[in-house]
Amino acid sequence: MTPVNGGRGRGRIVIGENDPSLTRYAGLAVTGELARRLRLVELIDAELSVERRARPVKVRRRGVSPGQLVVSIAESQLVGGEFFSDLEEVRADQAGAGLRTVGATPSAPAALQRSKDFRRVHCQRVERACARVGEHLDRALGREREEPVTIDLDATGIEVFGRRKQGAARNRQGQMSYAPHVAFWAQRGRALTSELVGGNREKLSGTECARIATRALSLLPAGHGPAIFRIDSAYYQLELLARLRREGSPFTVSVPRSQAMWKALAEIPEDAWQDAIDMPGAQVAETTYRPQGWKHEPLRLIVRRVPFTAAEIAKRNGSRRLKTIHPEQLELALDGKLASVFGYSFILTDIHWQPTVWIEHFHRHRAQIEERLKESKLGQALRHLPSGDEHANRVWLTAALLALNLTAFCCDLCPAAGASGKAPDNAPLRRAAKTLRNLMFTIPARIVRTGRRLILRPPAGYRHGDVLKTTLDAIYALGP
């Protein structure tokens, strides 16, 4: 076949001038329109303006407002920003400035410096504004306010580097790190509130645990349905359980394995075990247990056992799963004296109106929060806390959870933006944050202005234009 240009090849490639009508981040039009419809920035600024427990965040005559600062950091994280310096990439996209929530993205030095002015109570005000936005969205979607609520509490570790990191501390592995504690609304996939502490405090005091739980409850809409807490073993604190009892919130909590648990296990007869739901080979039984200092009725202690063969134990040597096996039985299995043993998990609950297998199955899906935390670290920017200043890192954490909530809002609005299938507890399925970013937020497009319309023309070969269009249509359907 003869080349069109007469066999001379395509010639030298020349880099031309920048196209002022081409934007790198056309997909930020989705979150931009959503934030404007829900008045996200205005609500954040309004909440910050009434805070009196700390010096107000300075409002400048030039530049962005405090609410715009937090939202601009979240927008940078939505398109893959991992550090404050990545704000410059969004700032350079002048063509897409009108699409974003914050067109005048602050410079990286200005954003970092202003983030240092925030205090813990200011970040809590941002959380309250985000909760109000979510409440407005739920009303627009016609969701019943009285639906049951499940709140998951968990923590994650974030390793940091550098000698001067305020508030960081060495964790059990000797790594310098922070430990964010987050409360998630399971059915909505949204972060309610968070707390940033040093890496050596993955287990908080009872007072701190109770404070986080109370704050999470205060961020639910008025008139919400019964709120059940699913709690990790690190939060097994009597003061937290007592606070939930006073708040009228039932709970299920993982209990660390101890001599008291092994003693309670011995009281369960062999004929009391029954098969667990959706977990082949696992069995469930229950007894009662009253924690020391608990002033109410004895609580239900749900026990799950999973069989392990000697071959599996040898293969999993060093695995965390082996810690579920009674130490004496584990030693016998490793010595070859037992062909199989059981690993045990203990769940304490005050839910008295549901059968044993339902409670175990319900508590097992606490793993949803681990998926959300993984998304915030792998898909969003929570894998880094980039500043040496603790206050700036707290703002970064708040912005990362805000970005996570914005992606959850998009999936709520457009089922095509979520994953297919069915999740437990009627929770909507969501695509991985990185997939959603590549599918929607980081799409380049040419901006064409005609009359009163603004047209985005994605590149040839873009396969998800229907998702982008459907999501925008759902946002416009919300009304002003």
Describe this entry's structure for a reader.
Helices cover 38% and strands 17% of the residues. It has 480 residues and is of the alpha+beta class. The chain has two domains: 285 residues, no CATH class; 100 residues, no CATH class. Strands 2, 3, 4, 5, 6, 7, 8, 9, 10, 11 and 12 form an eleven-stranded mixed β-sheet that branches. A three-stranded antiparallel β-sheet has the order 1-13-14, with no helix packed on it. Strand 5 and strand 6 form a beta hairpin. Helix 1 packs parallel to helix 16 and helix 2 crosses helix 3. The model has no long low-confidence stretch (mean pLDDT 85).
Query: What's the quaternary structure here?
Result: single chain
- Distance N to C terminus: 58 Å
Question: What string, H for helix and E for strand, traces the elements in order?
Answer: EHHHHHHEEEEEHEHEHEEEHHEHHHHEEH
Q: In this structure, how is the largest beta sheet organized?
A: 11 strands, mixed
Count of strand segments: 14
**Uncertain segments:** none
Radius of gyration: 26 Å
Strand portion: 15-25%
- The number of helices is 16
Q: What is the arithmetic mean of pLDDT?
A: 85
The tally of structural domains comes to 2
User: Overall 3D geometry?
Assistant: globular
Proportion of residues in helical segments: 25-40%
Structural class, from helix and strand content?
Answer: alpha+beta
